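Good morning,

Attaching, inline, the backbone tokens for the sequence recovery test we're adding to the shared suite. The designed sequence is right after.
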């Protein structure tokens, strides 16, 4: 996976907490444990009969506000993925009745000598910035993808697919 190129869409942050982040792209959903710096869960769109993030067969991904569940909405199938157990099941849900993660994006992208941000840049209550980024020293693919937490003075960088 590390040397694989990105699909039609760049990876997107679907949820951020102190312990975990949820990322999704055209291939599926990845759950990373930030404390252990490990991939701790994966949901494959194709394996479960779902399409990517665009087109007439698009799949939509939502994460609960508390980060416990991922709601996966395909054209013909819906799934609920329980993050703590890693178990998912095909089940109907109504998005309008869910309490979903709605972190506010900050307007400015971030670029340093080492990386540049992709997608949204988020900010927590303490004004720390959190975002996905591409390392400049590598070809832009999954091996170059990192998650950054920055307090403005120091960056905490998590190397996601660079095993």
């Amino acid at each position: 996976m590390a040397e694989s190129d990105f699909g039609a869409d760049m990876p997107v942050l679907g949820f951020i907490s102190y312990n975990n982040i949820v990322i999704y792209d055209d291939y599926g959903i990845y759950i990373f444990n930030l404390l252990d710096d490990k991939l701790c869960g994966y949901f494959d769109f194709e394996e479960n009969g779902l399409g990517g993030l665009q087109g007439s067969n698009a799949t939509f991904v939502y994460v609960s506000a508390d980060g416990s569940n991922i709601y996966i909405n395909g054209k013909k199938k819906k799934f609920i993925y329980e993050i703590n157990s890693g178990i998912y099941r095909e089940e109907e849900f109504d998005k309008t009745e869910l309490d979903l993660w709605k972190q506010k994006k900050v307007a400015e992208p971030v670029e340093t000598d080492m990386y540049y941000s992709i997608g949204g840049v988020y900010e927590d209550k303490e004004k720390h910035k959190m975002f996905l980024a591409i390392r400049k020293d590598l070809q832009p693919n999954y091996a170059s993808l990192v998650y950054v937490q920055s307090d403005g003075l120091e960056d905490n960088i998590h190397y996601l697919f660079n095993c």
